[in-house]
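so im writing up the methods section and need the Stromal 70 kDa heat shock-related protein chloroplastic-like record in one place, dumping it here so i stop losing it
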Amino acid sequence: MASSSSTAQIHGGLGFSSLKKPNSRTLFFGQRPNASFPRAPFPKLTSKTTFRKGFTLRVVNEKVVGIDLGTTNSAVAAMEGGKPTIITNAEGQRTTPSVVAYTKNADRLVGQIAKRQAVVNPENTFFSVKRFIGRKMSEVDEESKQVSYRVIRDDNGNVKLDCPAIGKSFAAEEISAQVLRKLVDDASKFLNDKVTKAVVTVPAYFNDSQRTATKDAGRIAGLEVLRIINEPTAASLAYGFERKNNETILVFDLGGGTFDVSVLEVGDGVFEVLSTSGDTHLGGDDFDKRVVDWLAGDFKRDEGIDLLKDKQALQRLTETAEKAKMELSSLTQTNI
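--- predicted struct ---
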């Protein structure tokens, strides 16, 4: 996760007119050997630097946060005392459920409070939205069957999420924007400073449409998204690999919605994703679904009732499966 604590704005005519744009798969933290662009977009300033008349230098201190917008949970971090710090939310937790809900009174709920009421309000509670962002309806047939809310198609074939409580349908990025807004609001309170800029991570396999939609979500949330970076690159930064030279590393990422493995080449402060592979239908959500299917199958055999057709029962089963899965992280067995 990347973040920065200050920026400099320089006025007066100095600048660089022919910067080489880096490859979209590469993240630069220094100068690539033989590159045709400078290390930084500003000239080096020293105590002996002189400026012509009319030149002004304005240094603006502002927080730039790093955001991990996840399928099931999200997190936000900032640099504090020279070290990246995960920011706790209003509930005192380091992660925030990527869940948004609307009540019959048109109240909007985000995070843990939205997740808690999902059992009684399944059709208006939106989760795992990252699976739909930047995608067409024709691409998400399987995903749409795994959620308790209605996934519909608009006139252009895009995905819309139906919200009967307020008689409206949302694009996936509009829902993700609500999660981003909560993260940024919590960060602003924690840092005691308004946050308007962020770096957001995405899976390495995200295509241009998904990356653009993620950036749009930031814009809807009122954020300036300075950069979209690959999740394996962010993980490599977190472990300090940018300080090493000529390393080839493997990043294993098993998340709430996806599993992917990426091979990166690191050298001279440059990260390049050489290859990435994985399964977009293998993650914590999918583990939960297997347990839900098993429970529902058992119940149908014994009682003759298909719980999967009842949205409220489906949501309750999903929560039960998730709880059991989490308990098995530290126990050898659990009861459902």
